[in-house]
Amino acid sequence: MSILLAGGAGYIGAHTCVELLNAGYDIVVADNYSNSQPESLNRVKELTGKDFAAYEVDVCDKDALREVFDREKIDAVIHFAGYKAVGESVEKPLMYYRNNLDATLSLLEVMQEKGVKRMVFSSSATVYGMAEKMPLTEDMPTGGCTNPYGWTKCMIEQILFDLAKSDPEWTLVLLRYFNPVGAHESGRIGENPNGIPNNLMPRVTQSVIGKIPPIYITGTDYNTPDGTCLRDYIHVVDLAKGHVCAIAYAMENKGAEAINLGVGRGCSVRELIRAFEEATGEKVPCSDGPRRPGDAPVSYADAGKALKLLGWKAEKDVVDMCRDAWRWQKNNPNGYDA
Ligand code: UD1
Q1: CB of 273 sitting under 6 A from ligand 1
Q2: Which of 93, 102, 229, 337 has the fewest CB atoms within 10 Å distance of its CB?
Q3: DSSP secondary structure of 25-58
Q4: Is 2 helix (H, G, I), strand (E, B) or coil?
Q5: Within the chain, which residues score under 50 in pLDDT?
Q6: Terminal Cα distance for the chain, rounded
Q7: Which residue among 96, 175, 200 is best mutated to probe the pocket of ligand 1, counting the most ligand atoms within 8 A of its Cβ?
């Protein structure tokens, strides 16, 4: 069984490569390295002792994609290829809509041409917008996103649901990720954000090594137990294993399903920072600051559907997430650059 990972050299993609290879799947990667490095794939090979083909291809380029499908035997696709920086999407909405929608449509059209009708898509909990009822279940309404990045996820979900309705041969699994953090426990692959990171965990690790200035806890007056926002942080290796289960599911089922991948518990910013300090013995340089515009006070998953349909649940805790994120950061202060 051979799986094409579009955007497979990125943070979640590389971890998924490892888990698929360890589970006995063959893989093929297509990535234009616009926000990733081929070095991540070298490390996947080193970690697994397995080889695979990687094509430097822009997923928006249908001719290049056709060539990949002609050269390789592909049974299903995992679609990670897309821009993902929330702030940048507000500044460059056209770039985000063009790239994320185009990549998806090109991939789906070529898959249809080649008769490969199984896709697992990287969606996001961001599709729930500013929902107030927790935990978030997959049947809750989507939309009301606060930025173009989030809207691209919503729009792509709609495209996938419409496609499944039009043709019962398709299997489309929409994985709604909560907050992926951490790194492979080897410390060889991890998150390698471009420039100054926006997300909490890479900001924590980079502030500790002094790469960025001390951070702020953005909002301490929310209506939550300690006043800081609650998020459902999930270890990237658990998330990657969720993709392996989604692929197994896609081999046996038809239709479109949205499935949350989260732990199912809200963890506050203060709690995460405390866990980091306990797990690593390092002090996180931080102070209380104002709210960050567009932040939902609370977001966590009902993870029941993933257990029921995929037989998957997260196993690692916040201490594992912090310890592994720190090991990666310490061992690779410049990411994949030597
Ligand atoms: C953000 C995006 C979301 C995207 C996800 C990817 C927004 C509004 N949402 O989610 O669309 O799918 O990243 O992982 O940007 N925080 C601090 N100090 C900091 C940075 C963050 O206290 O320096 C807090 C935030 O207020 C938030 C929590 O940490 O409460 C997590 O923030 P972050 O890692 O950016 O994730 P989300 O905002 O949940």
Answers
A1: no
A2: 337
A3: -EEEEEE--SSS-HHHHHHHHHHHT---EEEE--
A4: strand
A5: none
A6: 34
A7: 200
Sign of the Cα pseudo-torsion (12, 250, 83, 6, in order): positive
Q: Ligand 1, closest atom to CA 218?
A: 22
Query: What pLDDT was estimated at residue 132?
Result: 86
Question: What integer pLDDT is reported at residue 194 of this predicted model?
Answer: 85
What single DSSP character describes residue 73?
-
**Tokens 């002792």 belong to which residue?**
49
pLDDT of residue 320: 98
Q: Copy the structure tokens of residue 114.
A: 């080649």
**Tokens standing for 74?**
């592909």
**pLDDT of 195:** 87
- Tell me the per-residue pLDDT of 170-218, one tens digit each, with 9 for 90 and over: 999 999 999 999 999 999 999 998 889 999 999 999 999 999 999 999 9
Contact 171, 255 (CB under 8 A): yes
Calpha distance 93→227 (Å, rounded): 32
Which residues are marked as active site? 149
Q: Is the CB of 126 under 6 A from ligand 1?
A: yes
Crossing angle for the helix pair 318-331 and 200-208, nearest 10 degrees?
50
For 8, 157, 235, 240, the CA distances from 306, given in Å and listed in that order, are: 22, 17, 15, 13
DSSP state of 115: T
Separation CA 305–CA 260 (nearest Å): 7
- Residue 217 Cα, ligand 1 centroid: separation in angstroms? 11
Give the number of residues written for the chain.
338
DSSP state of 208: H
CB 222 within 8 A of CB 269: no
Q: Residue 314 is encoded by which pair of tokens?
A: 């997260």
Q: Provide the pairing of β-strand 230-231 with 267-268.
A: antiparallel
